[in-house]
Amino acid sequence: MKIHNFSAGPCILPQEVFKEASESLIDFDNLGLSVVEISHRSKSFVAVMDEAVALTKELLHVPDTHEVIFLQGGASMQFIMVAFNLLTESGKAQYLDTGAWSSKAYKEAAGLGKAEVLASSKDANYNYIPKGYTIDESADYFHCTSNNTIYGTQIKDFPDTRVPVVADMSSDIFSRSIDVKDFDLIYAGAQKNLGPAGATLVIVRKNALGRSGRYIPTMLDYTTHISKGSMFNTPPVFSVYVSMLTLRWLKANGGVETIAKRNDEKASLLYQEIDRNSLFAGTAAIEDRSTMNACFLLNDEGSHKEYFDKLINTNQISGINGHRSVGGYRASMYNAMDIESVQVLVNCMQELEKKYS
Length: 357
Known about the structure:
Blueprint: E1 4-5, H1 15-24, H2 43-60, E2 66-71, H3 74-86, E3 92-97, H4 100-112, E4 114-120, E5 141-145, E6 147-148, E7 153-154, E8 165-168, E9 185-189, E10 200-205, H5 222-227, H6 237-252, H7 255-276, E11 280-282, E12 293-298, H8 301-314, E13 317-318, E14 329-332, H9 339-356
Parallel strand pairs: 1-13, 3-4, 3-5, 5-8, 8-9
Antiparallel strand pairs: 2-10, 6-7, 9-10, 11-12, 12-14
């Protein structure tokens, strides 16, 4: 029976990608060697890195003003790299606080220089995206997290500002169309829509670099990795390879524009049931609901949780439990998830309703 994987990350990836990746663990590119044992400077792997970069540029319509690099350390490493490269010694950065990850990003910047929280939704356990704030035009950059996996919120409209915009898009990169030229820096851990944990995608405007006026450790300097084609040191070979395969899959399935329509359909199906079914309630503000992570609660957990969990297990639904800071359930519907899996979850919700209506 098929497992319906709603895990928030590491998460579902296309089965076709798993198949090809598993075969390459034994024999990659007809070399008689595994993809994880060849030199990262070999012709075969350089071609992988080049294709991953080229596909990123093609699928996101990255302009020539920006560089694409693959790094390590996850989004968490980017929290401090962003500050080292963009925060000047006499300047300041402004952060939009929409959850755990944006708070951690702010903390790293504040430890290096002047950083401030411009607006926050902490007062309501991050169940909405703050609006109506004004970005200080003297700021070195404005930082936001586009999608908040824990709380199920997502920025629908990014601010129109002259200030350089930095966005952590770890959990919704490649899930919807974005205009890359509106951002000075985008970063994303691979382990949602891109590939397995280990690689981090960075898209950075070329002329945004070299202005901080501070010493930047070699490994934390974006120009280091740009100048070496993402291979200053040994890259996360397998993660980059699987990411490349996933980007191939995305292109073959119509690209970002097509996958965005599929993601909207999946999210609409589940949110309609959450709103219709009297036994459930969503946790995020309706206008800020994430298409990637739908968080919801049972209105009467004491009476209904045991049976609902039984339905979930019987129907091979995995990774559905909500984060401890929110509780309830969280259905993560990343690019590779079929709408049929969402329908299985909806069917369980409807079956619960029939039993207790």
